[in-house]
Amino acid sequence: MSATEYEGWRQYNVQCARCHGQDALPNPVAANLLVSLAPKGPAADKATFTKVVMEGRPGRGMPAFKETVTPEQVDAIYAYLKGRAEKRIPAGRPQEPAKG
Length: 100
Hints:
The protein is mainly alpha-helical. It is 46% helix and 0% strand.
């Protein structure tokens, strides 16, 4: 796991997990992000994902996070979720990447 993906895991747990579930596992409350970010999913590309996170989807209950997260945090969350969707990152607490 890269340092960016690890930071994405951290930010996901702070910003996203309360609705989208721990480890981005499917739940009845919010969109299944593992499907949304799969290669042919509706938010597979970073631009679409970023727009949804920053602007929200009010008609679907997704709040806007433009006042809450930075673009760098969104990039990190995207990297983590892409790794989960592509099955490169397993569920659970990852090991922190080595520094240096």
